[in-house]
Structures are given as structure tokens and as C-alpha cells.
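re: ur question from earlier - yeah i can do the single chain one, its not a big deal. heres the input i used so u can compare w yours
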Amino acid sequence: MYTVGWGAFLGCWFWAAFGATQTKVPDLTDKPAIEEGRKEKAITELKGAAEEVRKYQATQGKDMLQKENYEEAIRSVAGYFPEVPVHETSGNRQFVKVQMNRLGAGLDGIRFKVPGADSREMVWVFALPRTNSLHSWYIVSKDGPMNGFKRFIDSHGAGGAPYDEMAPWGRLKEEHRSFIQPLTGGELKGGREYIVWFKFKDQTPTELYVAINLLPAGTKLTSVIDWEKALGFVWE
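and the output i got, formated as C-alpha cells:
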């Protein structure tokens, strides 16, 4: 489980990007639709799940029973999260835009499905405005226990990451903070659904750009350079 500000910032970034810049980003801001009459119920359930996450985080990841409780709580609210597409070609990425924390409950997320029957490696990138209130994020399987994320890199430095000009947020006035992260070891199983949740410090909605690449099990993703190449960014 990752809290913003935790984890290592892995070196300085010097980038050249290849591949065409994505000129039109699908906007999933209003998906899934939540009827006005269901919003109060949704907010209550999302706040309840956020509380279960908080309880687990308070144990520093040591209470396995609370881990099960929080994961089940996340699964129970996943229907409120938009399903995002995945890409299956190394060296490219296709972004979508979603709105997180849209109900102001302090918890939101995305869902995705692994195509086919084979296990996959994952490398993904997401970005939010630097003024966002992101507190933490992690991944949960809809079907049961799994080993989640272990590492990430973060464009925490002033001015953002040099590849921003190739990303959709690079054309916007507001500066964004981006993260790149792998999940290796064939943890993602074919045909199954996975949930990435985001916990926020306040009720403010925020836009999120995300691109997920799912690659064949065994794809080399041991170094930061490997992650960059898999997303269409090349180290120089």
C-alpha cells in the first residue's frame, strides 16, 4: 500500500519519448453513472470502505484480519468505480481520463480486466494535478488475496517529469504529478478483474489520467528503464 511521499525516488530522469502523442483522450469522467437517489448510499458505503483502509494503515500493515476486512470493503464498493481499458503492446500507451473522489467520500478507484487466459505483468502510469489531495493507493483482486505493488517512481521534483510534453496533461495549464509503477511475477491472472483504489485527504474531486499496459508473463521489468520502455519512454 502506497502513501504519497513514501517509497524511493529512483534517480534523476532524462527522457526522450517515442511514439505518436495521443491527441484525443477518452473521457470517462461521468462513468459509471450513479443515479441521484443512490448517491447518498454510495457516499456512505465509500466512506465506510475508507475507514477500513484507515484502520489497516494504522496497524502499519501488520493486522492480517484487518487487511482482509479492508480488501472486502474495497470489493464491496468497486461497482462505483469506472472500468478502464488496458493496452497489450509494449512501447506504447493509451490514456483515459477519469474523475476521482467525485462523490467527495475520500475514496475512489478504477477497475480493469485482464484479457485472455494467461497471466500478465503490469506497468502503468497515472497523473493528477499537483494540488490534489491524494493520500495513498493500492491494488486488490476481486477474487481474493494477491501480492500487490512494491515500487514506483514519482515526478515529485519541481517542473514535473521531462516526458510530460508527450502526455495529455502536458498540454494543460495546471502542473501535474505523475507516477510509474510495475507489478511483476505474473500476479495478474487472465480473465480476472482488479481494483486500484485511491484514498484522499479531503472531499475535493480531482481528474486522473491513467494508462495501463498488461504484458506477457516474464516480460523484463526489473529496472526503471524497463518500465519506461514498456510505456513508450526511452532513457538516454
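Residues 39-58 form the longest helix (20 residues). not sure if urs matches, ping me
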